[in-house]
Amino acid sequence: MKHALVIEDNSLIAMMIGEELVDHGYESVEIATSQDQAIQMAKVRCPDLVTVDDKLDSGTGVDTIREICREQAIPVVFITADPDAIEKSILDAIIVPKPFSRPQLTAAIEAAIHSPMITDGTSP
User: Fold this and answer.
1) What are the distances in angstroms from CA 107 to CA 4, 8, 9, 51, 96?
2) Which residue in 9, 16, 71, 106 has a CA-CA distance of 20 to 30 Å to 96?
């Protein structure tokens, strides 16, 4: 059963992403709104794919992904209004700029599946 984790503090955007992931074959989708919540969810059930915004109510997407992907490679799609910040922090990040279309998200999901991310948990 394919499982996805959506890390997004805007509920409307999170639901839209979740619907796209279900359409893409993910049988379960969890939504986290903060860094701590996302890390805890990933510990309980390791996702097969993560989508993440960088600016969260609590914490950042970059720091969240560094923790979640510390020990294993997971496909990650950053969905953010500030793609430059992601590009400066994570080499080869797959980024969908907000606002985005479903085809952009679908293409990014496919790209992420073929290039899972693993980090050492440190800054560049």
Assistant:
1) 16, 19, 23, 13, 9
2) 71
Whole-number Å distance between alpha carbons of 60 and 21: 22
For the chain, the domains span 3-114
Distance CA 32, CA 14 (A): 9
- With beta carbons less than 8 A apart as the criterion, state whether 71 and 95 touch: no
Instruction: Give the tens place of pLDDT for each residue, 43-75.
Output: 999 999 999 999 998 999 999 999 999 888 999
| Whether the Cβ atoms of residue 63 and residue 34 lie closer than 8 Å to each other | no
